[in-house]
Amino acid sequence: MTQIAEPGERAAPGFAGTAAGRKPRTRRKFNIQSILGTTPMIATAIGVFVICIIFSIIWSFTSSKLFPNFNFVGLSQYERLWRTDRWIISVQNVFVYGVLSMIVGMVFGYLLAVFMDQRIRQEDLFRSIFLYPFAMSLVVTGLVWQWMFDPNLGIQSAVRQLGWTSFEFAPLVKQETALYGLVLGGLWNGVGVTMAIMLAGLRGVDAEIWKAAKVDGIPTWKTYLFIVLPMMKGAIATAFILSATGVVRVFDIVIAMTQGGPGVSTQMPAIYVIQHITDRANVGQGMAAATMMLVPVMVIISLQYLFQWNAKRKAART
Amino acid sequence: MARAVSTRRKIFFTALAWIVALLLFFPILWTILTSFKTEQEAIASPPMIIPSWTLDNYFEVQARSDYFRHFLNSVWISVGSTLIALLFAIPAAWAMAFTPTPKTKDVLMWMLSTKMMPAVGVLVPMYLIFRDTGLLDTVWGLTMILTLINLPIVIWMLYTYFREIPVDILEAARMDGAILWKELVYVLVPMAVPGIASTLLLNIILAWNEAFWTINLTASKAAPLTAFISSFSSPQGLFWAKLSAASTLAIAPILVLGWLSQKQLVRGLTFGAVK
Question: What's the pTM?
């Protein structure tokens, strides 16, 4: 049975004209299986994300207090939002936190990956250990680091015990440095993943490149920096997206580590929203802030679609 | 990939790797050690390295706040949401991997992009739905929400695994007259077991660690460990040993699961980027 049926089945996808994808996979515009398989998922995703987001956006134009209502007040929630210092500080904080943790995380992740690339023994073991912090919840991460940074218990007191009595390292107690303490905790949590992705990227680079660089007498560090790094765009993009989503959603670690303080020095947009929809009983204001948080993500997603669409149109023309 | 590295350099780098690994692991290790100290030892200066191995903290955490219930909540929520997510995700990933349409990639990217949305954007509508349906502060409600949140990741992971299964085998089964559900149950699932297992593992870890929804949608009855621990977040130096005991119990399952399945953990945590 199988032998007879095979050739006819195989010929079909080739004529369908879509070149992409691996050879034997059938590509049809509609088929009952794919519709059946993806419907539950698409239905839940639309139900939850799209509808809920639409409601959030609608409520941001209302004067909702403790409970949402539909008493529309135009843009006044947004006007108030951008006049509120607390919100502006939140935006600045998340910006500083994001830029710092992403740049430092990528640099350290790459350095660690290069380091792991030196044919260390028990590489798998080390890779797992480096990844462990990421498997910890951010709540535990925040707690542990809150403690490491405690002036009387943590790193500061340990170093002072060793004899360096003027040593100061307790970033969370001061307004000016609390944010950097948060960045350090976040880095500890995330650097292992960046490393693992970068390492996979390094391993994906053709060995011939290394041979050629060696023949040309290019020093190893230059090869890593100027030749190999630009070749692993995929790994860099993956690591970038992963850390960027972490930044957009930063919440748990702040709650566990500083709760936005001291003062408003580690206030974050997500916490601003939560405070307004709970303690401050001002859902309209909270939703305006939440909508502002959605804006950058939506811009990025629509830009991506634009690029895709553009590429498709170009491909269709040629 | 045959780059020669001299033996001396290799030893040097291995030693360095141990130091870096120790530094990275130190906070976790210290938490575990502290959980076995008395409260006086925990805040002693100079810090005591070797604890007196008391188990009092564990008993006290249990006695004071019914720790075990929160632990069970965590188990129930993470395992339950993972199983339900798999139930939804296996057909979806199967359809996308084996019968792709021109729109498959778009659907997949769109699914993943929901993961990038800040969760506060949907919190209020969700909260109201939960309140009106009586799901607030229930294990069932949390199980449902975590299923929804992690569904894109589960589908993505399964998709990357399913794509590695040669399609010929499924076609052969179909030629032999296997009907749809038989093809799924007898052919696909057995071959995909390793992939499904690592997806399961990753999702349990993600659900176990989820804090945003568990903090905001529970009060005390259904609070899992993350919410329970975050309620302690200003310990004022007095309860460090107890807090460490609670944290240790919260991370212990992850440490054990992670150790038993290092390879899958790496692939899972990097979302399929590392094989």
Answer: 0.80
Do residues A180 and A171 make contact, with C-beta atoms less than 8 angstroms apart? yes
Q: Under an 8 A CB cutoff, do B269 and A193 touch?
A: yes
Q: Would you identify the CATH topology of the domain B66-231?
A: MetI-like fold (1.10.3720)
Rounded-to-integer distance, Cα A225 and Cα A114, Å: 10
Q: Where are the domains of chain A?
A: 1-60, 84-317
Determine the CATH number of domain A84-317: 1.10.3720.10
- Nearest-CA distance A197 → chain B (Å): 6
Distance from CA of A80 to the nearest CA of B (A): 19
Instruction: For A134-167, give the DSSP string.
Output: HHS-HHHHHHHHHHHT-TTTSHHHHHHHTT-TT-
Are A253 and A141 in contact, with CB atoms under 8 Å apart? yes
CB contact under 8 A, B3 and A242: no
Question: Position A8: which residue type?
Answer: G
Tell me if ipTM is over 0.85.
no
pLDDT tens digits, one per residue of A224-241:
888 888 888 888 888 888
Cross-chain residue pair B240–A147, CB shorter than 8 Å: yes
Angle at B187 between CA B186 and CA B192, to 5 degrees: 110
